[in-house]
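The records we work with from here on pair a chain with its fold. These numbers are not coordinates but entries in a learned vocabulary of local backbone shapes. To see the layout at work, look at the sequence and tokens printed below.
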Amino acid sequence: MVRGKIELKKIENANRLQVSFTNRRKVLMKKANDLSILCDADVALIVFSNTGDELVGMSFSDLVSLESQLNDSLLSVKDQKVETSRLQEKIALEENQLLRKQIESMVGRGSSGPQRMDLTIPQGPRNRARIRKSDGSIGRLKSQLGKEKEAEDRTPCDNSRSASVF
């Protein structure tokens, strides 16, 4: 036999309301306890009754302690988030510097013959956008080097001077 779906709306009957509240609170407490045992987690559950009954099992000092634990946890999460973003920024800067050095070394040997692209870029979802951007930049750089090479071939060059465009 299948249980019917219950329409969620406020219960008007005071007796039925109290019985439902008590039963659902017990089930909620059991689920929180199960979660704590199964996952070895600290679970805090605060349930206030609309009848004004005192909170069972929690004193003022327990609430202050709970507030302190929550604040400490929030600060820890914020610190981890900041540290992670700093680390990601540092990695991005190091990758940028590596790519700049590789491009500069390619430009340095620009007029000596055919170019070979030996860029090693770490693969990953974060780097795909960077790769697309750098592909466009490298294409423009190749185009510029090709134009310089054509200009050198067309005009007689004085070997005593050399110009670099960058």
Notes: The mean pLDDT is 76. Residues 46 and 107 are 66 Å apart (CA to CA).
